[in-house]
Design goal:
74% helix, 0% strand, globular
């Protein structure tokens, strides 16, 4: 009897051939060049102070904080969505389906509903930021830990329950919003729209290391994600505990989505948009090739939208207008091409 060598997750090949690898490198370098160009443009364009003066660098420094926020948001959405697609075996859904945005809206609406206009101030600050993050992570973790712990439930059941619970939270939020004073509602609306200006720079020293740690963990476990993408039976035969690995990845996804949603507000289609484009550009199932492309696409999209809105339409920070428009169109195109969810 001939013994065969055990198959491992590291036996997969990232690229088909040298041409495939070269095309991926060209796309990666091109995105890096575009990203750097947009960073320079956002920092220097329309700066009223002479180049090199103290005033010029003070203005540039204030703009750098927005660039850092966009980098954090792009990384969180890109890595979370790609990982979420892997464990759910569905490239149409997004992590928002677990109810992060609905819960974020409920928390902020309840604060304004109970405390009035002062509630918008209460929801800002380090303590409030981490409170929202903890609530979102706990909600998502309890949801899929409970549903995936039973042999009678699966990922699809978890997604359906998430949709129903998200709809319920959104209905409660809408009910409270209808009872608000018009002025209070205007204040609340500005908070509920994904906006780079919503981010408080005092959150960054906490958000950056947490997001970076989770992102590094996902990169380090890229081979395991490659195995998970092959399905439960195959990943189990490769020596992985499929259910445990799925829960670990979902915990990482929930942390990333909670951090970015609490930081800038909801951006429903950002992750879906960059992940869909990354799959087409990378043209591989290797997460080590997909992750950097997805992150750079997200960063280019955010910085490009920020530049256009800031210097053409003078609507600083409201990048969700462009992101949701493009993302929604791409979503419809993908649905029409596939003909199913």
């Amino acid at each position: 009897m001939v013994k065969t060598a055990p198959v491992t997750a590291t036996s997969t090949t990232t690229f088909v051939d040298a041409k495939h690898r070269r095309r991926w490198l060209i796309c990666l370098v091109a995105l890096i060049v575009v990203a750097i160009s947009l960073v320079v443009a956002n920092i220097t364009f329309d700066n009223p102070m002479p180049l090199g003066t103290d005033g010029f660098w003070k203005i540039a420094q204030s703009r750098v904080s927005s660039i850092v926020v966009m980098a954090v948001v792009a990384a969180a959405h890109a890595f979370a969505t790609v990982a979420f697609h892997t464990v759910t075996f569905n490239r149409i859904v997004t992590p928002s389906i677990l109810g992060f945005e609905a819960l974020y809206g409920l928390i902020n609406t309840a604060a304004v509903f109970i405390l009035g206009a002062a509630g918008a101030t209460v929801t800002r600050g380090i303590a409030s930021y981490f409170f929202q993050v903890i609530v979102m992570v706990a909600f998502a973790t309890l949801l899929y830990s409970w549903l995936l712990s039973s042999k009678f439930t699966n990922v699809h059941t978890m997604l359906l329950v998430g949709v129903v619970m998200g709809a319920g939270l959104a209905s409660l939020t809408t009910f409270m919003q209808r009872m608000l004073d018009p002025n209070e509602f205007d204040i609340l609306t500005a908070r509920l729209m994904g906006n780079i200006s919503n981010a408080n720079t005092q959150y960054l020293p906490y958000a950056i290391p947490i997001v970076a740690a989770v992102v590094c963990w996902l990169i380090f476990h890229s081979r395991r994600l490659d195995a998970l993408s092959l399905g439960s039976a195959v990943s189990t035969s490769l020596g992985l505990d499929h259910r445990r690995e799925t829960i670990k990845v979902l915990v990482a996804v929930s942390i990333l989505m909670a951090m970015t949603t609490s930081l800038v507000g909801p951006m429903t289609f950002l992750g879906f948009l960059v992940a869909t484009m990354a799959y087409s550009i990378a043209d591989t199932y290797s997460h080590r090739a997909i992750f950097p492309i997805a992150f750079l696409l997200g960063f280019v999209l955010l910085t490009g939208a920020y530049f256009v809105l800031r210097h053409i339409f003078y609507a600083q920070g409201a990048v969700t207008v462009i992101v949701e428009l493009i993302g929604g169109l791409v979503f419809l195109i993908v649905i029409m091409r596939k003909g199913r969810l």
